[in-house]
Amino acid sequence: MPNEEGQQSYYFPVSAQIDPKDWKTNLLQSMKAPLFSGRIQLLMDLLQPLCVSDGIMQVKNGGSFFSLYRQSGKILIPGSSIKGAVRSYATAIGGELVAEKLFGKNSQSSLVFFEDVLGDWKVVHQGLPQQFAPSNSRGEVKLYKKHTPTVAPRSVHVFEALDRGQTLSFDISFKGLNEEQIGFLLISLGMDPQYPFILKIGRGKSLNLGAVSFCSQSVLVHDPKTFSDTEKQLEAFIQTFKNRFPQVSSVLLSISQEGGRP
Q1: Residues 6+ apart with CB under 8 A from 35
Q2: Model's pTM, two decimal places?
Q3: Does residue 69 belong to any structural domain of this protein?
Q4: Does residue 160 belong to any structural domain of this protein?
Q5: Domain total for the chain?
Q6: Which residue of 176, 186, 213, 252 has the smallest Cβ count within 10 Å?
Q7: Residue span of the structural domain in which 8 resides
Q8: Considering the domain boundaries, does residue 250 fall inside one?
Q9: pLDDT mean for each 10 residues of the chain (262 residues)
């Protein structure tokens, strides 16, 4: 498959788009400002089949087969899989240290929590070649384009995947975030109205799988108030972040152009 992987992926340096010292100063200043805790209900539109397998190889029809996760007979998409993908985009936008402040690391708790997605959806079987985890040895974060590969790879394994054209609903909860941090989270989900972008999740990201887009369905904020106009309030958070860190606009433009818009 000549250069197909290269045609379907692109790299961003993880050197900080936002100076961690500037981010820390922002957080110190925000201690006097309201901090929000709450829950955002999101809709995730599947623009391509979504494959997040349980990793257990079965033998079916003489070949290897991998199923989706299931719990009590229902399909389960782990929230950690969605969070991991969103974190990659956050790292590209704000840098690794800034992403860690929101998504956590070994010695630091996460401030955002992605719930598992459980339900009954239409599935398809998708042939995929042997794939390997992306390397970050070059000090860059690897993102993916939406476009269909021009060269079909030789299938080695068959995976169960959610069919495209479906919409999944799930919640993200957060605690102790200021307006700019909520804006950063929403931007990392591709929800900036000016620079929306498609995210890639799961297996086969370079092979016409995993493209999704997000939009909010409802918001519940515990402190200091409950919002009456969800969309306008979330857009205000996004704009607050962009006003504070205007240097990220060039990165958002590039991701929107390279990865595609919903």
Answers
A1: 176, 177, 178, 223
A2: 0.86
A3: no
A4: no
A5: 1
A6: 176
A7: 4-48+79-119+136-149+167-256
A8: yes
A9: 47 63 59 78 95 79 80 94 95 88 85 95 84 56 70 69 96 90 95 95 87 90 64 88 90 89 88
